[in-house]
Amino acid sequence: MSEIAYVRGDATVPSVKGVKLIAHVCNDMGGWGKGFVVAVSRRWPEPEAAYRAWHRDRASNDFALGAVQFVQVERYVWVANMIGQRGIRTGSKGVPVRYEAIDTALGRLADRAVELGASVHMPRIGCGLAGGRWPLVEPLVTERLTRRGVAVTVYDHGEGGRN
């Protein structure tokens, strides 16, 4: 079983060969514009456009907590929009992150990674604006991805993710 590799850098620019899946957590409200998605949109317009269309047409598709949308942005690069947070603000129900939804989404991500023979690249998902804690997310990544032999690299950009 491999372990998660931690590097300092930009998860939108993985420097490994082969097929790459760039994974990140989205909210269930259709909001896109803060956090890691800004870096994604700077490189490729397709993931944001696909996410917005997925949300707009949610009555007729699988858009919900735990769902994943895979968007091919280059020949060997895919972006995985994972719905893992309820809303966008911390309120009476706590922080927006939903660990169960991230767990479900990671299972779907692992299936696609195995199917494509891809490595996975991500920031500390769910731990920025979503308010999650990496010590709770990391075991989910290990269980769903690295235990299945998927190579995972977590990127800390600047100061890195909150713990």
Show the helix and strand layout.
Layout: E1 5-8, E2 20-27, H1 36-43, H2 46-56, E3 68-74, E4 77-85, H3 99-116, E5 119-122, H4 134-144, E6 152-156
Describe this structure in words.
Helix 3 runs parallel beside helix 4. The chain has a six-stranded mixed sheet, with helices on both faces. It has helices spanning 36-43, 46-56, 99-116, 134-144, and strands at residues 5-8, 20-27, 68-74, 77-85, 119-122, 152-156. It has four helices and six strands; from the N terminus they run E-E-H-H-E-E-H-E-H-E. Mean pLDDT is 93; it is low at 159-163. The longest helix has 18 residues, at 99-116. With 163 residues, it is an alpha/beta fold. The protein has one domain (5-156): Leucine Aminopeptidase, subunit E, domain 1 (3-Layer(aba) Sandwich), CATH 3.40.220.10.
What structural keywords apply?
globular, six-stranded mixed sheet, alpha/beta, 4 helices, Leucine Aminopeptidase, subunit E, domain 1, 29% helix, 163 residues
Low-confidence stretches: 159-163
Query: Which strand order does the major sheet show?
Result: 1-6-5-2-4-3
The oligomeric state of the chains shown is: single chain
**Structural domains: how many:** 1
Rg from C-alpha positions? Answer: 14 Å
- SS class: alpha/beta
Organism: Streptomyces cadmiisoli
InterPro entries: ADP-ribose_metab_enzymes (IPR050892), Macro_dom (IPR002589), Macro_dom-like (IPR043472)
Domain Macro: 1-163
Protein name: Appr-1-p processing protein
